[in-house]
Amino acid sequence: GAVVSQHPSWVICKSGTSVKIECRSLDFQATTMFWYRQFPKQSLMLMATSNEGSKATYEQGVEKDKFLINHASLTLSTLTVTSAHPEDSSFYICSAIPGVSSYNEQFFGPGTRLTVL
Amino acid sequence: GQNIDQPTEMTATEGAIVQINCTYQTSGFNGLFWYQQHAGEAPTFLSYNVLDGLEEKGRFSSFLSRSKGYSYLLLKELQMKDSASYLCAVRDSNYQLIWGAGTKLIIKP
Hints:
Oligomer: heterodimer
Helix content of chain A: under 10%
Strand content of chain B: over 45%
Helix content of chain B: under 10%
Number of strands of chain B: 11
Radius of gyration of chain A: 13 Å
Distance between the termini of chain A: 37 Å
Strand content of chain A: over 45%
Order of helices and strands of chain A: EEEEEEEEEEE
Largest interface: A-B, 20 and 19 residues
């Protein structure tokens, strides 16, 4: 149980285009999902907390108009990188906390590697 | 500010034991997590400590001392597949996870 999927697993796009990444909890409902970004050889950086039915909470320094988050249902959150630039190239990972997990640990999706040319 | 420190990289030999340390300074404490992350993959949960002491789970054990702001992850009988980054994360008073930069563990035959 507690499986989180992401789609796509990797994407290459041209500078200036927008890219949508989906995060799904496959066997549980998640009122809260988290979006992280990870640059090579660096740790996870929390970008935003996605709450079902309400606006996402963004971390300091993360542009909410550039990284659009929509948590439309209890099993789906999407992250849209708008007008992507090469510096947005990174590994984007989502996570969720199942309501019945032992320690309220986060379960992570497999990640999406974004490359902006 | 909030801070988590762990060594950047460690090297160990297959079959041996390695201890990865983590020290933290956070606003409150609601548990400490260890995650394993293989290159290019998402982190996977290893252990959770909220009370002082040692938690053992197979070849992996995790220790916590809240008074010292210190934890370690102990890996026994190392296998080549244990080569990965090990992330220490602390949940603060707001239930936010504060992540360390990770320790890259290299296992040599």
